[in-house]
């Protein structure tokens, strides 16, 4: 698996994401946002958490217009895989690769704690390493994680089994307790919780390992 | 030419920040505030003297970047 992890000014989970991919056996390249193309042979793009461009205008809005973001959209258009975590999820909604938008948490507080999630579908390369309905614990750390979609889109997401993860105890007001959603072709996942912060016993939990391992098994480089 | 773009959350989209402001106003004794919606004002200084062109350009900017039309609406006003 060849993974490219994007670095925006203000990204702060890029190295954690790189380590998580490396431990799953990936060759990882860090890619600066001003680069206008992804490394040759990229199987999956990791869009990390952080505060790209200081969250100016809207979270992820400026990053979504970066030169590299056009390449990420093209990569996804070719059927490439993309994982967006936290600010990365916000960037992916701003690019239009994923539906909906992430708004200020309903309680207006920055929330930083481990949360319980249920795996709602295992029909994706991201979640195939879990059991259907499995409860996992993964940290969240966000101020703008309140996922909002309109009713028609929610119905579509449910009909197409594209809700990957839900909160057991909704911390931020997200519609239908949604913590992570898949694209129509199931190859783009955006999620607010940080699986890369749950890959080592020292993190306090290792429930993120199965995601990176499953990706590594699915995306064996040619 | 100066152009103003007002960006507001669409009707029906819950505005947690506006709600917080409403509560704060209540605690200051402003008891008759039924609702508060918080938005953004963006002022553009465009290098053109053509009002119609300025409006069209600002509208394109709003569609592409200044507003997230999934949750926000916008209004463009040429100030001259």
UniProtKB/TrEMBL annotation, chain A:
Name the Enzyme Commission number(s) assigned to this protein.
6.3.5.3, 3.5.1.2
Compartments, as annotated in UniProt: Cytoplasm
Record keywords: Secreted included? no
Signal peptide coordinates:
none
Gene3D superfamilies in the cross-refs: 3.40.50.880
Q: Which UniProt keywords apply?
A: ATP-binding, Cytoplasm, Glutamine amidotransferase, Hydrolase, Ligase, Nucleotide-binding, Purine biosynthesis
Locate the transmembrane regions by residue number. Answer: none
Q: One Pfam family for this entry, by name?
A: GATase_5
Catalytic activity entry: N(2)-formyl-N(1)-(5-phospho-beta-D-ribosyl)glycinamide + L-glutamine + ATP + H2O = 2-formamido-N(1)-(5-O-phospho-beta-D-ribosyl)acetamidine + L-glutamate + ADP + phosphate + H(+); L-glutamine + H2O = L-glutamate + NH4(+)
**Primary residence:** cytoplasm
Quaternary structure? Part of the FGAM synthase complex composed of 1 PurL, 1 PurQ and 2 PurS subunits.
Under the heading SMART domains, the entry gives: GATase_5
Catalytic center at which residues? 86, 194, 196
Q: What is the name of this protein?
A: Phosphoribosylformylglycinamidine synthase subunit PurQ
Please indicate which superkingdom the organism of origin belongs to: Bacteria
Q: Which SUPFAM superfamilies did the record assign? A: Class I glutamine amidotransferase-like (SSF52317)
Q: In which pathway does it act?
A: Purine metabolism; IMP biosynthesis via de novo pathway; 5-amino-1-(5-phospho-D-ribosyl)imidazole from N(2)-formyl-N(1)-(5-phospho-D-ribosyl)glycinamide: step 1/2
User: Can the keyword Membrane be found in this entry's annotation?
Assistant: no
Cited function: Part of the phosphoribosylformylglycinamidine synthase complex involved in the purines biosynthetic pathway. Catalyzes the ATP-dependent conversion of formylglycinamide ribonucleotide (FGAR) and glutamine to yield formylglycinamidine ribonucleotide (FGAM) and glutamate. The FGAM synthase complex is composed of three subunits. PurQ produces an ammonia molecule by converting glutamine to glutamate. PurL transfers the ammonia molecule to FGAR to form FGAM in an ATP-dependent manner.
Automatic annotation (TrEMBL), chain B:
Where in or outside the cell is it found?
Answer: Cytoplasm
The question of whether Transport is a record keyword is answered with no
Q: Which UniProt keywords apply?
A: ATP-binding, Cytoplasm, Ligase, Nucleotide-binding, Purine biosynthesis
Query: Chief localization class?
Result: cytoplasm
What sort of enzyme, by top EC class, is this? ligase
| Reactions this protein catalyses | N(2)-formyl-N(1)-(5-phospho-beta-D-ribosyl)glycinamide + L-glutamine + ATP + H2O = 2-formamido-N(1)-(5-O-phospho-beta-D-ribosyl)acetamidine + L-glutamate + ADP + phosphate + H(+)
UniProt xrefs under Gene3D superfamilies: Phosphoribosylformylglycinamidine synthase subunit PurS (3.30.1280.10)
InterPro entries, sorted: PurS, PurS-like_sf
Known EC number: 6.3.5.3
Query: Tell me, how does this one assemble?
Result: Part of the FGAM synthase complex composed of 1 PurL, 1 PurQ and 2 PurS subunits.
Q: Which family does it belong to?
A: Belongs to the PurS family.
Task: Give the NCBIfam families listed for this entry.
Answer: phosphoribosylformylglycinamidine synthase subunit PurS, PRK05974.1
What is its biological role?
A: Part of the phosphoribosylformylglycinamidine synthase complex involved in the purines biosynthetic pathway. Catalyzes the ATP-dependent conversion of formylglycinamide ribonucleotide (FGAR) and glutamine to yield formylglycinamidine ribonucleotide (FGAM) and glutamate. The FGAM synthase complex is composed of three subunits. PurQ produces an ammonia molecule by converting glutamine to glutamate. PurL transfers the ammonia molecule to FGAR to form FGAM in an ATP-dependent manner.
Protein's UniProt name: Phosphoribosylformylglycinamidine synthase subunit PurS
Q: What organism is listed for this UniProt entry? A: Sinisalibacter lacisalsi
Name of the gene encoding the protein in the UniProt record: purS
